[in-house]
Amino acid sequence: MESSIVVLFGLYFIQGLPYGLQAGFMPIYLRTKGSSLAHVSAFKLLLAPWFLKGTWAPLVDRYGTKMRWLRASVAAMCVACCALAATDPGDSSFAALIFALNVFSATQDVAVDGVAMQTLSASELGAGNTAQVVGYKVGAAAAGLLGVVEARVGWTRMFLMLSAIYAVSYALLSAFEPKNVDAGTSGVASPKSSEQSFHGDQSEIADACQRAPGKESWESLYRSLLHTDGTLWVATFVLTYKLGEQGAISLMPLFLVDSGMSSSRVTFWCGILGMTASIAGSFWGGHLVTNRRIAPAYVALRHCTLRIIPMLAMLWVTWSMHLHGSLSILEDFSSLAGLCLLHFHGGVVTTATFTLMMQCSRNAPPRCQATHYTLLATAEVLGKMALTVALGGVAETCGYVPSLALALLLSVYPLYSLRSCPSAFLDG
Predict the structure, then answer these.
(1) DSSP per residue over 395-424, as a string?
(2) Domain ranges of the chain
(3) Which of 225-229, 246-250, 398-402 comes out lowest in average pLDDT?
(4) Integer Cα distance of 121 and 78 in angstroms
(5) 3-class DSSP state for residue 119?
(6) What is the DSSP letter of 184?
(7) How distant is the alpha carbon of residue 260 from its chain centre?
(8) DSSP labels for 188-206?
C-alpha cells in the first residue's frame, strides 16, 4: 500500500505543476505587468482541456495501457516545457503551448485516476485520495513559487527546470509497472454486487464499454454511465461545491496587490502559507475519513459550514477598504489569516469530495471506471474554474465587494446539497 501511495503522490505532484503555473504564478506576474483583471481571469480559459477531457477519456480506457498513456503524456509535457523555455509570454505561440501543456496534463490525469482505482482497495480510498489531493497541491504550490525562481534564474531556465522534472519522472515511470493495472476486471475490488452497484441494464453498460469506439457506442457509454448509482447527485455537488471558495481565493490576492501590499508578501501568504494550510486541511480530511471512519459527506458538510467564517472576514475587509481607502493592521491580518483558514477548510472538503467521487466511480463497471471518474473530475474542475474566470470581469465592473458577496452566496448552496446526500454515501 505504501509504495502505491508514494507513486500516486508523485504522479499527482507533477500533474499539479501546470495548474500552479497558471493559478499561482501567472496571475500575479501578469497583474504586476499591468494586465487588467478581466485579462488575468481570461487567461484561465487555457485550462479548457480539463473541462473537455471526458471527450477523450474512453480512448485511455480502450486503447493501449494506462501506463503507456502515462508515459506518453509525461514525455509530451517535457517537450512542451522545452518549447516554452524558448518562448516569451508576449508571443502568440505562448498561449498555444500553455494550452497544449494542459491537454497533456489532463490526459495524464485520466490515466493516473484509472491506475488509482485499479490499485487501491476500498479501505485504501481515503489514503489514496489524500495522496492525490496533497500531491496535486504540493505540485501546484511548487509551481506557484516560480516567481521567485524566475526572478533568480530567468524565464528560460525556469521552464528548463520544469522540463527536467518531467524527464526524470518519465525515467522513473519507465521502470515502474504496478500490479492489477489494465488486467481487465481481475484484481479490482468491487465494494458491491452488480445489482447493488449501479442501476439500469448492467449488460448494456458492460457491452458499451467493450464495443469499438464508434459514435453510437460512445453515446451509449455516456448514457449508461450517467445511470451509475449516485452519479447525478455527485456530479451536481462537485460542480457547485467550490464555486464560492475558489472565487474568493482567486480574487483576494489581486485585491491585496491593488491595496498596496507587495507582490512578494502576497506570494508568501497566498502561495506558501495558504497552500501549506490547504495541504494540512487535506491531511486532516484524510485522517477523518480513513482513521476516524467518518463518512466523507459528513466531513464535507461540517467544513463547508466552517469555511463561511473566513469568507465573511474577507468580505468585511474589502468593504472596509471601499469605505476608508486603506487597511488597518487588524484588517490586513484578517485578510491574510482568512485566506489561510479558507485554504484549510477547502483542503478538508476537497479530500472528502474526491473520496466521494471515487466511491461513486467504483460502482461503475471496471472497464469504464476511469471514464466515469474523469466525467466527475471534469465537473469538479469546471465548478472550480467557472467563477474564477468570470469574477475578474465582475470585479473590474462592480468592484471587489459585490464580487466577494457573490462568492459568499454561492458557498451556501453546497450545504443544502449535502443535506440531501444519498444514503449510500453516508457510511463511514
Answers:
(1) HHHH-HHHHHHHHHHHTTHHHHHHHT--GG
(2) 2-181+209-419
(3) 225-229
(4) 32
(5) helix
(6) T
(7) 30
(8) PPPSS-HHHHB-S-HHHHH
Whether the per-residue pLDDT at 221 is higher than 70: the answer is no
CA pair distance 310, 300, nearest whole angstrom: 16
State the Rg of the chain over Cα.
21
Return the C-alpha cell found at 1. Answer: 500500500
In 264-302, which positions are buried (b, 16+ CB within 10 angstroms) versus exposed (e)? eebbebbbeebbbbbbbbbbbbbbbbbeeebbbbbbbbb
Q: Tell me the C-alpha distance between 27 and 40, whole Å.
A: 6
The grid coordinates listed for 268 are: 508568501
Amino acid at 165: I
- The pLDDT mean for the chain works out to 79
Report pTM.
0.67
CA distances from 332 to 311, 321, 329 (A): 14, 10, 5
Q: How far apart are alpha carbons 29 and 427 in whole angstroms?
A: 45
Take residue 42 and report the three cell numbers written for it: 481570461
Residue 178 to residues 171, 225, 396, Cα–Cα distance (Å): 15, 26, 49
Half-sphere exposure of 296 (CA within 13 A, CB side): 26
What pLDDT shows up at residue 411? Answer: 92
**Between 93 and 129, residue with greater pLDDT:** 93
Give, in words, the CATH class of 2-181+209-419.
mainly alpha
